[in-house]
Amino acid sequence: MLLKANLPASPKRNGSLVRRHSRAAGRCEGGFWRRTNQQEVRQILLAARRYELAEREPGSRNGPLGSVAIEVLQLFANLVDFRTGRLEPSIDTLMHKLRRSRDAVVRALKALRDHGFLDWLRRYEPTGNTGRGPQVKQTSNAYRLSLPERARRLLWRMGVKSPLPEDYELERQAKSELIEAFRGSVNIEERTLFDVGDTPLGRALARLGKSINQRESARQTESHPSFIPYEKR
Predict the structure, then answer these.
(1) In a designed cystine with 69, which of 4, 65, 121, 219 is the match (CB 3.0 to 4.6 A)?
(2) How far is the C-alpha of 134 from the C-alpha of 124, rounded, in Å?
(3) pLDDT for 143-171, tens place per residue?
(4) Which residues contact 72 (CB under 8 A, 6 or more apart)?
């Protein structure tokens, strides 16, 4: 199935057709890419390596992913934009950086997707043609890394903590900021009770803090008198 809008009967780009289910680059990635972080990406890479070893058949040189797939995943881990999740290298870029053939790279990508470590969107973009000829052309895929449940369990089994969901991290950060704002709005006695708890130790520390505060306040008052004595001439 070809893209028909503004296209002649057989749109071509260097002899190849725009592929089925391709989407417009720049307009399809909003709900696809997601923010990530270095810890999460490292966990995915570690899980893939352990998955490759755990699922390898006895006597086989490679597991279900293959060594090139691990190389591709390692490269993706270095290329992904943590803030946006943006990841869109071309096949040619992967071939050049990994020094692998096109077939090897394509097989590696398929293996990663088949086993749940990768997903992608095919995309097209305008050619810039104003006359006859193709109006759009195939461009690089948009990729997204993921951690399949089976590989996640391998991390748990080997004592590696799985990364926390991003929404949990955001909630934890917001809660921490709220607590700090509250601590900054109360006096030292209340802050001590909040930090230590309403226990004998907490109450004793609160009284000590209050006493120190009172002494400091009295000292500042003595060193900065509120009136200037009258001098006789």
Answers:
(1) 65
(2) 11
(3) 999 999 999 988 877 655 545 555 555 55
(4) 94, 98, 105, 108, 109, 112
Give the least confident one: 17-21, 30-34, 89-93: 17-21
The closest of 126, 121, 127 to 141, measured between CA atoms, is 121
> How many Å is the Cα radius of gyration of the chain?
31
pTM of the model: 0.61
Whether the CB-CB separation of 64 and 55 falls below 8 Å is answered with: yes
What gap in Å lies between CA 192 and CA 39, rounded to an integer? 34
Residue 227 and residue 138: Cα distance in Å, rounded?
82
Angle (CA) 153 154 159, round 5°: 95
- Residue 84 has which token pair? 């946006």
CB count within 10 Å of CB 200 equals 8
Q: How far is CA 227 from the centre of its chain?
A: 61
Report d(CA 80, CA 83) in Å as an integer: 9
Q: How many whole angstroms separate alpha carbon 163 and alpha carbon 27?
A: 29
- The C-alpha atoms of residue 66 and residue 48 are separated, in whole angstroms, by 10
pLDDT digits (tens, 9 = 90+) for 27-61: 899 889 999 999 999 999 999 999 999 999 998 88
What's the distance, CA 110 to chain centroid?
Answer: 23
3-state secondary structure of 125: strand
